[in-house]
Write a structure and sequence with these properties.
The protein is an alpha+beta fold. Helix content is 49%, strand content 15%. The protein has 2 domains: 174 residues, Transcription factor LuxR-like, autoinducer-binding domain (Beta-Lactamase, 2-Layer Sandwich), CATH 3.30.450; 87 residues, Arc Repressor Mutant, subunit A, CATH 1.10.10.
């Protein structure tokens, strides 16, 4: 009964998206607009501008893989939406479902929060690969669109209310290592290695008197990772060092700056790279 209520809620809110999806289709050929919120127990809240797709998606999600799963919580920066292009070819059954409805060549915007992961996306027909160039040229416009959509959705259906209408047929992917997840983790390691090799991290800390304290490449990388919400252990995994070494880097930064608390460092930290 609860999932029936959730389905009705998703379809109703999906109508709200048409205020935006219809102009996107007319002006740019973008035919699909949607939102997915995944909770730690792998239940989820889902809406899009296609009622039939909502029904099919929520009916099959209990036996298919999520397009992105809750593990992205450990692989992406917090606070801001991160854009990720869809792969060239489907790698999950769920992606095949989108192709069935002639939706592909998508761009997702993903953000992890303390107790959930949020995804907005736009997509077009499978015969329109040139849309990827449009995404690149107009990234700022699309980011602004997603930001406004997210603000309005929170007003219409606050997060605490969404938990009343979430679907509970989730699958436990806690041990799943998806190709997308592995690719993101490798990308982060490549950035770490690049900054380490070129010595061009460019990070520094501004003291209260305005003086800038330059950090070593490893200190910069460490602080960058911590500023995205990663724990000591998670930062250590990306940097391929021990958590104790991460603590040592943080202790050195405190000694250089005179700041006693990590929260002070993160607030003062200015970075040119966002890991």
């Amino acid at each position: 009964m609860k999932d029936n209520t959730s389905l009705y809620s998703s379809i109703t809110l999906g109508q709200y998206l048409k205020e935006y999806s219809d102009p996107l289709r007319r002006y740019f050929g973008i035919t699909n607009l949607g939102y997915l919120q995944i909770f730690p127990d792998h239940s989820y809240f889902y809406i899009c501008n296609n009622e039939e797709l909502i029904k099919q998606y929520t009916n099959t999600i209990n036996r298919t893989e999520l397009f992105y799963d809750y593990q992205l919580n450990n692989s992406l920066p917090s606070q801001d939406f991160v854009p990720i292009m869809w792969p060239q070819n489907p790698v999950f059954d769920t992606m095949e479902l989108y192709l069935k409805y002639n939706y592909w060549h998508g761009l997702s915007f993903i953000k992890h929060n303390k107790d959930n992961v949020e995804l907005w996306w736009v997509a077009t027909s499978k015969d329109n690969p040139s849309i990827n160039n449009f995404y690149i040229r107009n990234y700022a416009v699309l980011t602004n669109l997603i930001t406004n959509l997210d603000i309005k959705l929170k007003k219409i259906c606050p997060i605490n209310q969404r938990k009343l209408f979430k679907f509970t047929q989730g699958v436990d992917f806690s041990n799943l290592k998806t190709p997308i997840l592995q690719s993101l983790q490798q990308e982060q390691r490549n950035i770490v290695n690049f900054l380490d090799e070129t010595k061009c991290s460019g990070s520094h800390i501004e003291l209260n008197n305005g003086e800038l304290i330059t950090l070593s490449p490893r200190e910069s990388i460490c602080l960058n990772l911590l500023s995205t919400g990663k724990t000591m252990k998670e930062a250590a995994i990306v940097m391929n060092i021990s958590p104790r070494t991460v603590e040592s880097h943080l202790r050195n930064i405190k000694e250089k700056t005179g700041y006693r608390y990590k929260s002070e460092l993160l607030q003062k930290h200015k970075k040119l790279f966002s890991l």
